[in-house]
Give the backbone structure.
Amino acid sequence: MHEMTKGANVGLGSLSEDATTVRVGLSWSSETGDGDADVSVLLLGDRGKVRSDADFFFYNNPVAEDGSVQLLGKTPTDSGSEDRISVDLSVVPEDVARIVVAASRDEGERFGDLNGLRLTVADRSGEGLLGFSIDDAGAEGAFVFGEFYRRGGEWKFRAIGQGYETGLAGLATDFGIDVDDAAEPVEAVEAAADPAVGRPAAAKPAEEPAGSGSAEAVAPPAVVLPAQAAPPVEQAAPAVRRPRTVRKKVTLPKVAKKTLAENDTWRSARLFPVPSLKSDRERETRATSVLLSVMAQVPEFGRRLTAGFGAPAGRMETFTEVSLPYGDARTGESRKRPDGVIRVERAGKLWTALIETKTNGNPLKAQQVQDYLDIAARRGYEAVITLGNDVALEGSPLVDVKIDGRRKHKVVLWHLSWAEVAHQAQLLIRHEGVGNAAHAWLLQELLHYLQHENSGCHGFQNMGPAWVPVRKAIDDETLCQGDPRAVDVVESWERLVRQVCLRLGGELGQKVLPVQRVRRAADPAARRGALADLLCREGRLHAELRIEGIQGILALTADLRTGKLRTSVDIPAPDQGYPLTWAKRLIRQLYEAPADLHVRTLLAEHGDGPRGTLERLRPEPADLLPKGGGEITGFRLSLIKSMGVTRGTAETGFIRSVDDAVDRFWGSVVTPLERRLAPVRPAVAGPVG
């Protein structure tokens, strides 16, 4: 990988023969676990300004209509998360001279508080081309990491690394996006659109990136923010902006219409029926055909699943049970049948991927995947995609295969989990919207199919063969540090946590990511080994989830010694008022929470303070105050339940109990509390129609 310094530039053609489609990754880490930022991309003309508001891509406008830019979202990594962007340079309009890649933090937050700021660029095959690390960030609220630009018919990249203390508003203004300070009344919109809530934005950058000029006024922008971002009850309401009116999008209501069935035995007719599936082979064939057909019919969905694999934005066609020759004609040629094929055409060029599907928790077979990689290489195909219940982790491949580096044509092996498929479908039909009602209905039918008990597409389903022996060894106190079975359990736990993030994020329409309190570029094997040793010593598995829009981090602990699951969140103490008022207000705000909720006072010097169940504290909130005094820094809310004993997803299974624990805590504690305490996400300028 070519490492760059600030101000340096390099031609992409000199780094790779296949750099027409690139994947940009922006990454950072936070030792506190709650640091984050949002990426944005701007297409600029010759004058250093956007051609229109539609050239500004951010979390509310993530995809260019021509497929040149697509924000792929955040992907968990071993040392935090990476925000990824797909850029198809071959279809960027001729009047676009520069593509600026930037990121911004919420109001009042600084990039100097984050560690390991880094940009990477990879080619279509995922091979890293260049990297640029930033170590001089300070008070900036927005940062320009770098830019792609045309020079002599070639695309080049320049490392910039300059920021704006005025945040995203200053950056947007500098590149020709007009940010309106004035509050505007909410206008009537169709039922599918959510009202947008935002703060007045500032203007003027602290530092100008190279090539930028004075701002030009354009039409006022508007955005749509998540429904959870409602004005807090106990603070002044911010300025209200108009909902976005660019491109009508259709979402389905969360509450279904009242059924006309006489009783529960009447089953609705489904587009994709599942009750008759009997064998694993039948499940795999049906699941592949159902998914690929919906991908071809719903462009937003098909593009969402393939953009991260290097596929261009173009006409997609999908196939199943394709017979392809394999072997040497001299020794006897045989034929192989991959489960599916995806083919995308753009400007006369084809991108092709072979699909190998597994359902019902069945593992991938290394030789089968290896055969498909060989076939793809010989036929000039670009990728092999494995699709299954398991969730991939960095540094822990799901299948051991060899890729012949001597071949000029590169074939890339990618993995897609059923949990990711369901996550993307849920985001589109419930939160972001698709082009028309028929597409929304198709995605709804797909989601119903994936969630049916007979489909075999339920995501990560088994904690692995080491789970039962490790639990028994913990009970017997015979589990020793260095036991490789403990590492296997830690990896399974990480896969489960990532699936929980996907499921919860799809339901909420918000980013949910596992927290890693480590420095970036930490060795995955060493980190998992340390966690395995901790499991051996303490008998506990621990994870933290950062959920956009809520205060604090949701912690999840599985104590294998006691068989208990604990879900908790820390609520910081208010900046003003009196401790007794804080305690009374908190108990009052938790009136919908379960009576067995544990509340603990957090103290600055002595750590934990008084504690009790909500049932006991409701008549006496003053019991949360420390008797001997002490500075209260916050309150910890926890729910404790028994965990499942088996390793699978049966009613008594561990995986099911983790899902239930997170759902119960979110629905009965966090959601009611956040309706009263949640901070508002800053409003950002966006395109209007």
